[in-house]
Amino acid sequence: MDLPVMPPVKPMLAKPAARIPPGMSYEAKWDGFRAVVHRDGDEIEIGSRTGKPLTRYFPEVAAALLAELPPRCVVDGEIVIARDGRLDFDALLERIHPADSRVRTLAERTPASFVAFDLLALGDDSLMDVPQSGRRSRLVEALAGVRPPVHVAPATTDLAVARQWFERYEGAGLDGVVAKPPDIPYRPDERLMVKVKHERTADCVVAGFRHHKSGPVLGSLLLGLYDAAGRLQHVGVSASFTMRRREELVEELAPWRMDSAEGHPWQEWADAEAHTAGRMPGAPSRWSGKKDLSWVPLRPERVVEVAYDHMQGDRFRHTARFRRWRPDRTPSSCTYAQLEEPVRYDLADVLAAPPAPA
């Protein structure tokens, strides 16, 4: 492979904001695997956000990119999987599997797509120093004839349209909106863009915690919600605390600490079969590797209000943010019924928006 921009390339990133800023180019924020694609003739490499290759996990995407992309190019985008008109991140996670036969079976059963939103090189030309507006124009021109499962991300410079996308596209499983200053060059691993994500709150049961990697202080709170059958399901964690607050929380939660998990709603977490019937902490993960997933059980009696962006199935998609304790709420009232359900919006309608230069 001999390209003006060689792998690995860490993608340019975005910093969070509370509101969509004016005077920028706007795109939907895709909930998938960020991927930088290098193509040189018959050679193709799909790199992850960390630079590690994803090619073997998405053979159908690699084949489509070879068929649809220009012969020599470097494209930044997102690998996504849709089910029933919505993005499905869990289906992506299933692909990270050591068995090639399993990967190929899933590629046929739940094929992935690639959404392109930036062009880093074309032919012999590096576009890294070209302003974003210029790269966008080159992207739209170079990929004008692409067919599914390869797409060009819709974009707009109209703030009103971006606000509509922010409200509507969540129903298709998208994360929010990304705003790109039109004059910025492409700078790997730098947060030069802006992301605006949805935020809601939920009252959750605190049913345990994990220790921090640095020592005997709290690393994360383990959060639960009761399902319709009255089972406490593990829905995620809250983990962003100062070191001083981590120390305080260990002491603060001491009265609810259990000597063992016996009698706890998640007492069977070490049994692999138990995870098929509900969500519990400590499940093995190909992503965590050797990471210590042991946890300290607490009597499920304390309620905390957390902020979250959106749900992925029956759990929080990202780490929830601690807001406050809720002594006025009973644990039994912490159910899935409190969660707001976004209005459904078909992903096909998102991709049907014209990919005009922005």
Automatic annotation (TrEMBL):
Give the EC number(s) listed in the UniProt record: 6.5.1.1
By sequence similarity, the record places it as follows: Belongs to the ATP-dependent DNA ligase family.
Pfam families recorded: DNA_ligase_A_C, DNA_ligase_A_M
Indicate what this protein is called per its UniProt record: DNA ligase (ATP)
Q: Does the keyword Ligase apply?
A: yes
Q: Biological process GO annotation list? A: DNA recombination; DNA repair
Q: Coiled-coil regions in this chain?
A: none
Q: Which organism is it from?
A: Streptantibioticus silvisoli
Q: What's the superkingdom here?
A: Bacteria
Q: Name one GO molecular function term.
A: ATP binding
List keywords of the entry alphabetically.
Ligase
Among Gene3D superfamilies, the record links this protein to: DNA ligase/mRNA capping enzyme, Nucleic acid-binding proteins
Q: Which residues form the DNA ligase ATP-dependent C-terminal domain?
A: 217-329
**Residue span, ATP-dependent DNA ligase family profile domain:** 11-197
Catalytic activity, per the record? ATP + (deoxyribonucleotide)n-3'-hydroxyl + 5'-phospho-(deoxyribonucleotide)m = (deoxyribonucleotide)n+m + AMP + diphosphate
Q: Indicate the enzyme's highest-level EC class.
A: ligase
Q: Does the keyword Ligase apply?
A: yes
